[in-house]
Each structure stands twice: as C-alpha cells, then as structure tokens.
Write a structure and sequence with these properties.
By secondary structure, the protein is mostly helical. Helix content is about 60%, strand content about 5%. The chain contains 10 helices and 2 strands; from the N terminus they run αααββααααααα. The two termini are about 30 Å apart.
Length: about 240
C-alpha cells in the first residue's frame, strides 16, 4: 500500500471474532463454561465498546479500495465444490500479500476446504448417533433447569437476552449470570452423554465419505503451505519467542 501512495495501519481483530472460534458442533469445556460461558456477553460487550472508539482505518476512497482490494478488470473466479465459487482481484494488495506469503495455490485450497469443512459439519449434525446424543443432552439440560432442544438453541437464548438488554439499556449482569449458569449446565451435560467422543467418531465417518484420495492430497498440501509460513515467521529475526 505504501508503494501505491497509501498509508495502511493494521486494524485490531474485532472482539466478536472470538465468537467465530466457537466449536462448530457446540462442544464446550467445563473450565471455559465456568469462567466465560459461551464468550457471548464478554465478546459482544467489548464489541459495543469498540464501535465507540476512533477507527484506525483511514477513510475509504475509490482509489484506496482499488489499491487494497484490486479492480474488476483483474478479477479471477475460482470454482469450488458444491457449486460454490469465489472471486478475487489479482491486482489488489490483499491478494498479492496473501500469495506472497502462502503461495499461489493457497486461495484455491483454503476456500475449497472451507466448503468441504462446512459439508463435514452438516453431515455430522445429521448423523444418527450425534442426534441421539443431542437428545440425551437435551433431557439432561431439562433436568438441570435449562431446557434446550439443541446446542445452538442454548447459545441463541443467551445472545437474544444480551441483545434485548443492550437495546433496553438494562443491566447486563443478569445476562452474564444466566450465561454462566447455562454454559455450566451445558458442559456438564455434554460430559454426561459423552458428546465429544460421539462427535469425533461421526466426524471421522463424514471425512472418510467426503474426502477422497485426491482431496486428502490437497489437504496435505494446504497444511504444508501453512506449516511453511509458520516456520518462516517463527524463525525470522524479528519473531517473538514463545
């Protein structure tokens, strides 16, 4: 961006990005459940505060966007499994920096396995053993006084309570207590029915059905590219020791 005449400062990761790290099956450990619940109220509250801070990103302009994201005349379309497709502009700094760091094949491989990973998750969520374990978990949650039919429903109720309290400018502490209590019951019930083992087995079956030999080879290449980047970063002179 500097070479194109623009200043670019790194934008801090959004606090709500922590919510994207939630296990796709809703698996929850007891330690996190007891200290941060589902990470919903803490993340969304911090996100609300962040919106009121000055943005480190400069005001956008057509020229700035073209430098960062590229132009349509350089658009490249990648066809993905399940009839999905994505595109990028090859002259944008975002794409060129990613390609320089990870290699030219990274974008195609990464997005391919985003699609396939979603398919694996969907398959697991429809697996008979998974559904049976979720039903047993639901019965446990009812006994614990936190009735929920699905893992998503338990989390969704907390998020809805937070949004209502924020809209009403009400005290958030009751929502925090509700989240901790629900998450603690959730984690305990998951342990009781052994959902982690059920998910591990169901995911193994789904991956075996979806990832054939050629996909396994591509997955190996994706992991190699990521490992190469991590090795270069951690061994560079300016790397911070861990």
């Amino acid at each position: 961006m500097r070479d194109r005449g623009f200043a670019y400062r790194r934008v801090p990761l959004s606090p709500a990005a922590r919510l994207r790290d939630i296990n796709p099956y809703g698996l929850l450990g007891r330690e996190q459940a007891g200290t941060d619940g589902y990470r919903i109220t803490s993340s969304l509250a911090e996100e609300a505060k962040a919106r009121n801070r000055p943005s480190p990103r400069p005001a956008s302009s057509p020229d700035w966007d073209a430098a960062l994201l590229g132009t349509e005349s350089h658009r490249v379309t990648i066809r993905l499994p399940e009839d999905h497709e994505i595109f990028y502009n090859s002259d944008g700094c975002t794409h060129q920096a990613t390609a320089a760091l990870y290699g030219d094949d990274w974008q195609r491989l990464y997005d391919t396995f985003q699609v396939l990973a979603n398919r694996v998750v969907e398959t697991v969520n429809q697996d008979a053993e998974f559904l049976g374990a979720q039903s047993a978990w639901s019965q446990c949650m009812t006994r614990a006084g936190r009735p929920s039919r699905t893992f998503d429903e338990a989390r969704g109720r907390i998020e809805a309570a937070f949004n209502k309290a924020a809209e009403d400018r009400a005290d958030l502490m009751p929502v925090v207590r509700q989240e901790l209590a629900t998450a603690t019951a959730d984690a305990g019930c998951q342990d009781e029915v052994g959902i982690a083992d059920v998910v591990r087995a169901a995911q193994g079956r789904a991956e075996a059905a979806i990832l054939d030999a050629s996909r396994q080879e591509q997955l190996g290449e994706l992991r190699r590219l990521r490992a190469d980047v991590l090795r270069r970063v951690t061994t560079s002179p300016g790397a911070t020791s861990r």
